[in-house]
Design a protein that fits this description.
The protein is an all-alpha fold. It is 78% helix and 0% strand. The longest helix is centred in the N-terminal third of the chain and has 34 residues, at 12-45. Pfam families: MFS_1.
Amino acid sequence: MQVEKQDKIGNYRWRIVVLLFFATTINYIDRQVLGILAPQLQQQFGWSESDYGFIIMAFQIAYAVGLISMGTLLDKIGTRLGFIIAISLWSLAGMAHAAARSVFSFSLARFALGIGESANFPAAVKTVAEWFPKKERALATGIFNSGPNVGAILTPLLIPVIALELGWEWGFIITGALGFIWLLFWIPMYRKPELDKRLSDAERRHILQDDTEPDATKLPWKSIISYKQTWGICLARFLTDPIWWFFLYWLPKFLNSNHNIDLTNIGLPLIIIYMVSIGGSIFGGWMSSFLINRGKNPVAARILTIFLLALLVVPIFFASFTSSLWLAVALISMATFAHQGYAANIFTIVSDIFPKSAVGSVVGLSGFAGAIGGVLFSGAVGVILEITGSYYVIFGIASVAYLLCWLSLQLLVPAHQKIQLPQI
């Protein structure tokens, strides 16, 4: 009977979330192409380690700026037009890498890519809010949010083949073109559910069933930054987001310099690393839920889970010392597994302690803090590699970052205190 009822409602909204999944997958493919090609480009153009660090910083600065501005823009122009502008910008920027020849021109292309790509997650979350009732939004978000891992797996499979057969420029051109192919589906398919004539009346009522509920008052950041919990979460993201950025952009270079891995054989190590990281996201969510079901306070359960995962990152310090490729892959995989499990909990802590009207602001503010941390760390990585010629300092920083993150949460995010913000 339940299946029959669902059939009568209709399922057009799930086609929309499939579009969001592909947009997010393309988003991660486009941002990761440079990391895969970095060893070849560094040799061809004579980049120093600092040069590469500055190129990465350009993307992260733009991404940080975009994270605190795109939400407002999307609210003004709507998700349909917002996505059209954003994916057109980042696709053109991705393709523009093919014409770049200097550090400045690559940095300029990366900056434009960062501005465009920063809109993806705010736009996707807003689209889910428009097209799904509250009881279905978590599932819809989970579907589109699996795109980053899929993108991280597909990129090392696709880019080496394209670059070796056609040249590195085509790696950027072909992946950049994917966004325009996506627009061929988005433009005709997407309208607000109130206006979409392809929806049945039953599905439209189902989607809009929460519209009778009053909207929560939107709170500016200045009304929440006085709370130590906000700073604890921002500090956690500031410490750990740069490590994930490092994994995305510097692992191919590390594998190349330490283990002679190039475009012909880079696929398998990276696929293993990111496949393991998918398991971390599932484990992190399961672990905290297990502790909660055993009677532990939700926030305390998540902070304890983060501590246990932080311990898995500590051995990554030895990844720069081992001569075994697969031992290094195993140590890095443990760290990416832990990061994804941590991420599943840090986002949920926000909704555990802040009212719904403040969740978006706290997530945006903490994401900005993480992006700033990424900017600083990328610059530092380039300088450290030029001075030391080794990754041991960098992996040493990564090995303790998550323990420091746990400490910031332990000190600044009391488990039994839920924040009640004043309405304005």
